[in-house]
Design goal:
This protein is of the alpha/beta class. It folds into three domains: 85 residues, Winged helix-like DNA-binding domain superfamily/Winged helix DNA-binding domain (Arc Repressor Mutant, subunit A), CATH 1.10.10.10; 54 residues, Periplasmic binding protein-like II (D-Maltodextrin-Binding Protein, domain 2, 3-Layer(aba) Sandwich), CATH 3.40.190; 99 residues, Periplasmic binding protein-like II (D-Maltodextrin-Binding Protein, domain 2, 3-Layer(aba) Sandwich). Strands 4-3-5-11-6 form a five-stranded mixed β-sheet. Helix 1 crosses helix 2 and helix 1 packs across helix 4. The longest helix has 29 residues.
């Protein structure tokens, strides 16, 4: 009788068992599997111990199945077949993803960068059903039902998994005629006395710029007559100033912009729930 409280058999033991049946012997099964006959004998012993029953009758030069061995043979074939179908299905799912994918991002970045990329993704994988929602606020991707968030920055909650997609270079710059009027800052704290275009980003402190130079970070609080939580609007303001300072020739003004502080790299990351830990 089989102990109903026994352990579950290992797929490897079932594979060896079927090879022994197919080749009608331990040595021939070992040759087929590329292992030793001792290994085959050991796996059969473990399988019989796990199932608490004898599976094979061993006589000189001949191996036959017991009644339980016949049952295990049928089950083993089905179980290993299911394992193979599982493996094939996973490979197919990775190579040809399908189903619904709910993504969120910010308005400006999502519209200009994420949306075009998702259009290409949909063309490549037509069985995907993609939905993109855009916000200019912090999103709780778990409670709001999102699979993935594409965001700028590295402020990733501990219960989420983040993957860097690309580095986003930011520079501190000014139009040439502004520097002629107001002077060029000599050090970071000088920015506190200048008119800056201020962008409110997610839940970061408003009006605080964090800049990096020579692998060290410094922060400075800035202000100015114009501020917004929209990166696109701040960009429009900056370009408007550039255009107006060079008789409408934006490309010449842009080329003449002075880089005052070494650019800082921030992350563009994809964030998804940690389904294991969270």
């Amino acid at each position: 009788m089989i102990d109903k409280k026994g352990s579950m058999p290992l797929p490897e033991d079932l594979r060896v068992f079927l090879a022994v049946i197919r080749k009608a012997g331990f040595a021939a099964a070992a040759d087929e599997l590329g292992v030793s006959a001792a290994y085959v004998s050991k796996r059969i012993q473990i399988l019989e111990k796990t199932l608490a029953t004898r599976l094979l009758h061993r006589t000189s030069g001949r191996i036959t199945l017991t009644d339980d061995g016949e049952r295990v043979k049928d089950w083993a074939a089905r179980i290993l077949g299911d394992f193979q179908h599982l493996s094939d299905d996973l490979v197919d799912a990775h190579d040809n993803p399908r189903g619904r994918l709910h993504i969120c991002s910010t308005f400006g970045f999502g519209r200009n960068y994420v949306a075009p990329a998702l259009a290409l993704l949909a063309d490549r994988y037509p069985e995907l059903e993609i939905r993109l929602d855009l916000f200019d606020r912090v999103v709780d991707i778990v409670n709001e039902g999102f699979d993935l968030e594409i965001r700028v920055g590295d402020d990733i909650p501990g219960q989420h998994i983040g993957r860097q997609l690309v580095s986003n270079r930011r520079i501190l710059c000014a139009a040439p005629d502004y520097l002629e009027r107001r002077g060029t800052p000599a050090q970071l704290c000088d920015l506190e006395q200048h008119e800056c275009l201020v962008l409110k980003e997610r839940d970061n402190a408003f009006g605080v710029w964090v800049l990096e130079r020579d692998s060290s970070q410094e922060s400075v609080r800035v202000g100015g007559p114009l501020s917004s939580n929209s990166g696109e609007i701040v960009l429009q303001w900056a370009l408007h100033v550039i255009w107006s300072t060079d008789s409408g020739h934006s490309y010449r003004s842009y080329a003449a912009i002075f880089f005052l502080i070494h650019w800082r790299a921030v992350f563009v990351v994809a964030v998804q729930p940690d389904l294991v830990g969270g």
